[in-house]
Write a structure and sequence with these properties.
Length: 338
Amino acid sequence: MTRTRRIIIASATTALLLAAIPAIGNAAEMPGDACTVEGQILPLGNGAIQCVNGVWQPSKSSPTSAPNIKNATIFKPVGVALSQSTFGSTGKQVADATAFLLPNGKVRLFAFVNDTNGLPGLRVATSTTKTGLTFAGDGTNPFPGTPVGQPRAVALGGNSLRLFFVEAGNINSAVSNDGGVTFTREGSVLTTAQAGFEPGVFTVIKHKGTYRAYFSNLEKPGERAPRVMKTATSPDMLNWTVGPTVVAEGGSHPFAVTNKSGKIALYYPADRGSAYGIFVSTSSDGINFSNEKFVMPNGGDPDIIRLSDGKALMYYGDNVGADGMGVRVAKAISNIVP
């Protein structure tokens, strides 16, 4: 059977994107040598080396062969959450959804909509029930006149949230105290110069007394660049210190969750040759991730939320049929931090 690879929609203002790691020829470089393309993987002998923080280092991955893929049965798909029909759009592209739990138990989603009837940008939809499975568009745009994208909501308590988003080559933020109806901009929190590349989506957790974020290089149309993820730390979610590259295999558009013991699960779309979709890796220190497992075939742009009853849902990008690319929803059927 021929397997069709999915094209991930992850850019804030672009059309369909292919986030694949290209095969690269033999390298003359050796471990310890300087390198310039962060995350690049080259073959060396029977193994490979990867560019990490400007230095070639041994890598567990090979650009010419896929590692053994382990499966993790964590989420069960249950339906379509968002499509162009939700917003009355005709662009056949709804992507990058992020979820916020309202005080009344319903879920509010912020997503990028390629609206051919108006300017592409963020749109808002709210679940019709507390199950978080079906949604109605609110008819609102948090940032009218501005094509921002790749949003990520962080709950601040009650009806308040901070929204991180991609805009003009930076990660910017804004705060809302009315559940995401209106926002006050806070400016840039991570620039291209700080990141070392043009950053994409920004996911934030509280870990061991500080805020820790994960982000990848921004996917662009037609670009087949190596996917790189980095971490950063902050005392206040506004001033960030960029840390090292994480997850040696490479991935994009990460989403992080943690449990009471401090273990972190990082979900991200990636291409492993024999498997393409959403993977998960785990870490205790927030930097060194391992035990990668395959979670959702053909999925991209994951965002996970725990409902008021404690159950978890994952919203993710995928083809939804006649409406083109949209956002599906899956229920957690096992521990989301495996």
